[in-house]
Design goal:
The chain is mostly beta strands. It has one domain: Porin (Beta Barrel). It has three helices and 17 strands. The protein has a 17-stranded antiparallel β-sheet that branches. Strand 4 and strand 5 form a beta hairpin. It starts with 45 loop residues before the first helix and ends with a strand. 35% of the residues are buried.
C-alpha cells in the first residue's frame, strides 16, 4: 500500500426510505405486523406468486421443498439498463444446492447469465462457489467471456466523464481456485490459476483529441496476464447468496510470469473483507460492511488488467459509477449497506448504502482523489429457500455520476 495519502472530508449521507405497497399485494400480507422473524415456509417469493396465479397452494411448494431440499433454482429472463450497457436483454440463472446434509455442508451456488446489449456487447459469466462434503474443500470459479466495447476515462483520480476513450476488445477470464480446510471450522488455504486474455483491442481515442492514457501506458492489440495465486480464506457464512450474521475475509497473492504466457512479470494482491451484523434478534434486517483492495506492484500490469471500478468478480463494486470509471495501479474501496424488510412475509425488502473508492494517480502512484456515492434500492424475493433476491438499486456519485444497477443476489 502506498504511504502517500491526502486529507479528505467526505459527507456520508443517511437516506430514509418510505415505500408503500400497492393494494394488489394486500392479500399477501400476514395479519401480524410485528418484526418477528418468519419461518421460511411461511414467507413468500416470486415462485409462490406464480403458484397462486396457477391456483396451486403455497403449502404444496413447502412440502416439495422439504422433499427436494438439495437443489434450488432461480431463472430470470429480463430487459435491463446499466450505465455501461444501456438497454440489455439478459437471462440470469442461479442454482443453489448442498453436497452433503445441510447440517454438515454450506450451501453451494453457481451463477450465470447471458446478456446482449444496446452497445453490441456480449457478456457471459459463470461464477461458482462449491463446497464439498463436510466443507473439506471449497472450489471457487470465475469464468467470463466478453465482447466488449466500453468507455474508459484514463488513469488515476484526476479524470473526467467528459473526456472518454472508447476501447473495443474481446476477453476471456479464467480464475479457478481450490481451497482446503486447514484450521477451525472456517479457515481455508489453497492455490488458483488466473488467466486474463484480451484480443482485438482497438480504441477510438480521447473525445477531445488528446493522446490517451492507453497510448501513453502501453497500447497493444492483445494482452495476457497468467499466474498462479496463493489464497487464504476465512468464511463462516452459511449462505453466500444472502449472508446473515457472519464474517468473510480472503487474500489472494498472484505473481504473473512470462514463462506461464503472461506479457510481463508483475504481482497482484487482492484483499476482500465483509462483515454482516443483525442489529436485532427479532428481525432479519442486516447491517453489512465491505472492504475491497486491489494492488499491483513489481512490474506493470496490462492496461485492461489494472485495478478498475466494477471489475471485481461479480462486477458489483462502485455502485454510482460506470464500470471502468476509475483505473490505476492500486485501488481501495469501502461500502456500508443496511438491508431491511418491507413486507413481513419477505417478498419485498429494501436497502440503503454508501461507498467510497480511490485509485492511485499515474505515474506518481499516489492516492489523492476519493469518489463517494450513496444510494437506495428494492429487493424482490426470487427464491426464499436459497435466499436469492432480485436487487434493483439507484446510486448517485459525484460530478454528475449516477445510474441504475441490477443484480441477481445480494451485491456482497
Amino acid at each position: 500500500m502506498s504511504t502517500h495519502t491526502s486529507k479528505i472530508k467526505i459527507l456520508l449521507i443517511a437516506i430514509t426510505v418510505a415505500i408503500s405497497i400497492s393494494n394488489t399485494f394486500a392479500q399477501l400480507k400476514p395479519t401480524q405486523q410485528n418484526n418477528t422473524s418468519v419461518p421460511v415456509c411461511e414467507k413468500l417469493d416470486v415462485i409462490d406468486i406464480y403458484r397462486r396465479v396457477m391456483k396451486k397452494s403455497i403449502r404444496d411448494s413447502c412440502e416439495e421443498a422439504k422433499e427436494k431440499d438439495e437443489v434450488h433454482l432461480a431463472i430470470l429472463p429480463a430487459f435491463g439498463y446499466s450505465l455501461v450497457t444501456r438497454l440489455a436483454g439478459v437471462v440470469a440463472g442461479n442454482i443453489a444446492f448442498y453436497t452433503d446434509d445441510r447440517s454438515k455442508a454450506k450451501i453451494s451456488s453457481i451463477n450465470t447469465s447471458i446478456c446482449y446489449t444496446q452497445n453490441n456487447q456480449i457478456i457471459f459469466p459463470v461464477l461458482s462457489n462449491i463446497w464439498t462434503k463436510e466443507n473439506r474443500f471449497n472450489w471457487l470459479g470465475d469464468w467470463r467471456y466478453y465482447r466488449y466495447p466500453e468507455y474508459t476515462y484514463g488513469l488515476g483520480g484526476h479524470t473526467s466523464l467528459k473526456k472518454f476513450d472508447l476501447i473495443n476488445y474481446s476477453c476471456i477470464i479464467v480464475h479457478e481456485a481450490v481451497l482446503k480446510h486447514v484450521y477451525n471450522s472456517s479457515v481455508y488455504a489453497g492455490i488458483a490459476y488466473n488467466l486474463n486474455y484480451h484480443w482485438n483491442i482497438t480504441e477510438s481515442g480521447n473525445s477531445d483529441g488528446t493522446v490517451t492514457d492507453f497510448q501513453k501506458y502501453s497500447k497493444t492489440k492483445k494482452s495476457i496476464s497468467s499466474g498462479i495465486s496463493l489464497n487464504l480464506l476465512y468464511d463462516d457464512r452459511k449462505n453466500s447468496i444472502n449472508p446473515s450474521q457472519s464474517f468473510y475475509s480472503s487474500l489472494a497473492y498472484c505473481p504473473n510470469f512470462t514463462f506461464l504466457g503472461s506479457d510481463k512479470n508483475y504481482n497482484c494482491l487482492v484483499t476482500d473483507v465483509r462483515k454482516y451484523f443483525k442489529p436485532s434478534s427479532t428481525s432479519d434486517n442486516i447491517l453489512a460492511f465491505w472492504n475491497y483492495n486491489w494492488f499491483t506492484f513489481n512490474g506493470n500490469a496490462p492496461y485492461l488488467d489494472l485495478p478498475s471500478t466494477g471489475w471485481d468478480a461479480y462486477a458489483n463494486m462502485g455502485r454510482g459509477y460506470i464500470q471502468s470509471r476509475l483505473r490505476g495501479k492500486n485501488l481501495m474501496y469501502l461500502e456500508a449497506e443496511y438491508r431491511f424488510g418491507i413486507m413481513r412475509n419477505g417478498l419485498f425488502g429494501g436497502v440503503v448504502f454508501t461507498n467510497v473508492q480511490t485509485v492511485t494517480d499515474w505515474p506518481t502512484n499516489k492516492f489523492q482523489v476519493f469518489y463517494p456515492a450513496v444510494g437506495t434500492g428494492l429487493r424482490i424475493k426470487i427464491n426464499k429457500y436459497s435466499g436469492t433476491n432480485l436487487a434493483i438499486d439507484y446510486a448517485i456519485g459525484i460530478n454528475g455520476s449516477q445510474g441504475i444497477f441490477i443484480n441477481l443476489g445480494e451485491v456482497f
